[in-house]
Every structure is written in C-alpha cells, then in structure tokens.
Amino acid sequence: MEVPILKQHHYLIATVQAALTDADLLHLRDALVQRVGKFRSRGVIVDVTALDVLDSFASRTLRDIAHMIRLRGADTVIVGIQPEVAFAMIQLGLNLEGVATALDLEEGLAFLDKQTESRAVQGRPA
Amino acid sequence: MKAVMREEFSRPLKAEQSRESTDALLRELVAHLRQNRTQLRGEWARRIRDAQLLTAMSEEEVFAEVTSVYDNYVEALETGTFEALQAYARNLSERIIPRGVETREVLGIVLLLRDLLARSLFAKYQEDFDKLNQILDAYEPAANRIANTVAVGFVKERERIIREQQEAIRELSTPVLQVRERLLILPIIGAIDPQRARQLTEQLLRGIRTNRARVVVIDITGVAALDSSVANHLVQTVEASRLLGATVIVTGLSPEIAQTLVTIGVDLGKMNTVGDLQGGIEEAERLLGYTVAPAREAAIQQS
Predict the structure, then answer these.
(1) Is B186 contained in some domain?
(2) Between A and B, how many CB-CB pairs are < 8 A?
(3) Residue B225: its pLDDT value, please?
(4) What is the pLDDT, as a whole number, of residue B240?
(5) Residue B253 backbone dihedrals phi, psi, to 5 degrees
(6) Weakly modelled stretches of chain B, pLDDT under 70
C-alpha cells in the first residue's frame, strides 16, 4: 500500500496507514528523498501511529530516510511510535540512533519549527 | 535362565496379591478408626493442646478443625484418593495462615495424628504380631502420603499468598507522577529485578503517552545497588522513551552505584544524569522552557 505524502507549507508529512511491505518502505524512501528537493521542503514528518510492528528492516529504512534527507538539507522526525512498539524495538536493539522522534504529529511540527528556526538564526548574515 | 523367567512371571502376580491384601487391611483399619472416632479425636485434641500447637486458635476451634481433619483423614485412607483432602488442606490453610499458624505447627499436628493412630493400632493388635506388621505396612505409606499432602498444601498456600503480596508491592512501588505539564517523575525505591524493570518501562511508556510528556526524571535515590543487567534495562528504558519523543534525566545515582557502573563498563553516554531530584527537575524545567522564581523576586523583576 502506498503511503500518501502531503505537502504542508515548508514540510512534507507522510502518514503510514497500514502495515508496509519492504517494497512499500523503499518506495516511501525514494518518494520522500525526491520530493524534498522538488518542493524545497525544510522538514519531513513520518507518522507511524498506525503501525503495530516496526521490524529491523523498517527501522533501518526509517534511519536511512532520516540520513538521506539530512544530506538533502532538511530535517526528519518520526512521530507516533506506540509504547508497545517502542518497547519491542528496544528489546531487539533497534533504537533509531541519530533519528529525531516525537510523540505525535503536533509535537513533530513543534520540533521542526524549533529546528528550522535555529538553523535560520545560525545562517543569518553578520 | 529358567529361574529368571520364573521370577519375572511371578512378580506381577505377587504385586496383585499384595495390593488386594493391602486394600482389605485398609478397610479393616478404616473400620477401626470409625469405631473409635470419638475417643481418638478427643485424645488428639488433648495432645495438640499439651504440645502447645495451634495456640492462636481457641479450644472450640481446634476441636472443630480436629473433627474435620480426622474425618478427611479416614476418608483419604479409605478411598485412596487425595483430592478431597487436598482441597480441604488448601481451605484450612487459607483460614489459618492469616492467624499466624506456622508450618511447624501444621506438620506437628498431622504427625501427632499419625503417631496416635499407629499407637491405637498397636494396642488393638498387640496379641497378633504378624497381623500388626501387615496392618502397619498398609497404614504407613498411606499415612505418610496424607501428612505429605497436608504439609505441601499448606506451604503452597503460603507461597501463593507471598506471590500475591509481591505482585501488590510491585504494583504499588512504581508510580509515574506528573509534576508539571509535560514533565513526569518516576521515583524508584527498592531493588530492581529484570521483571520489575520491564514493568517499570511499560508503565513509564504508557505514562508518557497519556500525559504527553516531553521530559521524564527517573530518580533512583532509593535504589541501593545496580548490576549490569539492571543498568542495561535502565538504558533500554531511556532509549524506548526517546522513541516516544521524551527526554529522560536520571537523578540520584549514589557514589556506590556510580562506581559499579563505571567499573563494569556500562555505557551511560546516552544518559542524561543530574545529581539529585531537585537538580533533575530544574534541568527538566529548563528543557521545557519554564523559569521558576520566588513570587517577590518575580514581582520586582516585572516592575
């Protein structure tokens, strides 16, 4: 099942609706990495609230997405990981190291706002 | 060769015979115990009193219990089934454990009854030594099994109660508290075993979700010791919380715990640690953007 990607001002929001196959995940990765340049987005939110399981391939792909998007000049935040899923992931040693996470969409947006703001301050000419 | 074969052939037959005769003897025994019920029961109650067992119970209560134990005992001897006795032992244990009756006492009274009945058999069959021997052969294994059943039932019941209490303590001992909007504290007191660590993590994750927490302060001032497996659980809790978007601050690591953690080489690099609970809450407030100042100072600053 394809994941819809919505453009919301400077951000892209991908909301996962149902369990994803490995191919779906790779498709999501490619679509996000491509569109982040096309829309000149500053941030990407991947919402996984609907997922009951995040296996090693999914975790790795999410991490890859975050790193690739960083290279494309934007920030990524994964939102909505369920408590049970988080617990299971940690047991399996999947800790999404180096990837920003937030409780839900709202928190994710707040995080990206802060992130892009701080980048704007840094990038301001003297 | 021949001799061996004959022996093999005759063995099952022997066993069959002996079982039959055991049954007959047990029937005789039961009849004897039924006949002398009042006298033996009274004697047993008196002996219990003399041995100062079951002191937590009144004389009437002891007598009532003695009567039903006696009847159950005879029934178990008669039928050879122990389910009824087991159920009774469980029920009895449930009633007497809260009153402080000890394992020693329960075992004591069952063994008293066993000895008492053996003595009465001696008295009855003292003329006929062979018969006495046979009857004791039938009586002893059954009686021992009864004593065993009652004692095991009692201990099992005690263990069940202990398990329940442990569970209750565990439930009580891991509160997840909200101190401010978006800020939870989790004070941990007492020993942490892997099971408790797991439960703690689950409770914390649920708390983060329901309270929409962004920062969590875990205070382990009340934890006397940490080993490597528990320390790893703590690291896992921190990582799992991060996946839900919450930052964890650990406070109150005692000097001993700090030393052990460094010595055993647990990687606490990802953990945010602050000296005490106050410092932890202050740090959390800073992360959340709160400024807390005494009312008067704040008024002066404003004016």
Answers:
(1) yes
(2) 53
(3) 81
(4) 92
(5) -75, 120
(6) 1-20, 171-173, 268, 298, 301-303
What CATH number has the domain bearing residue A58? 3.30.750.24
Distance from CA of A109 to the nearest CA of B (A): 12
Buried b (16+ CB within 10 A) or exposed e, B238-261: bbbbbbbbbbbbbbbbeeebeebb
Asked if A37 and A72 touch (Cβ cutoff 8 Å), the reply is yes
Instruction: Mark whether B37 and B141 lie in a shared domain.
Output: yes
Are B184 and B151 found together in one domain? no
Residue A51 has which token pair? 């997922």
Predicted confidence at residue B8, as pLDDT, reads: 47
Is residue B7 located within the same domain as residue B145? yes
CA atoms of A108 and B15, how far apart (whole Å): 79
A102 part of contact set with chain B, CB < 8 Å: yes
Q: Residue B189: helix, strand or coil by DSSP?
A: strand
Q: Which residues on B lie below 8 Å from A108 (Cβ)? A: 245
Q: How far is CA B138 from CA B32, B41, B129, B133, in A?
A: 14, 21, 14, 9
What is the pLDDT at residue B3?
A: 47
Alpha-carbon distance B223 to B174, whole Å?
Answer: 12
Q: Which of A89, A103, A106, A113 to mutate to test the interface with B (most CBs of B within 10 A)?
A: A103
Give CA–CA dist B202/B164, Å, rounded.
20
In the block, tokens 């991060």 appear at B242
Tens of pLDDT along B91-146?
A: 888 888 888 888 888 888 888 888 888 888 888 888 888 888 888 888 888 888 88
Count the domains in chain A: 1
**What does the H/E/C string look like for A65-84?**
HHHHHHHCCCEEEEECCCHH
| Contact between A107 and B208 using a beta-carbon 8 Å cutoff | no
Domain containing B76 — which CATH number? 1.10.490.70
Q: What is the pLDDT along chain A (126 residues), one digit of tens a residue?
A: 789 999 998 999 999 999 999 999 999 999 999 999 999 999 999 999 999 999 999 999 999 999 999 998 899 999 999 999 999 999 898 988 889 999 999 999 999 999 888 777 666 555
Whether residues B195 and B159 share a domain: the answer is no
- Sign of the CA dihedral running B41, B46, B51, B56: positive
CATH of the domain at B244: 3.30.750.24
A103 close contact with B: CB closer than 8 A: yes
* Residue A100: strand, helix, or coil: strand
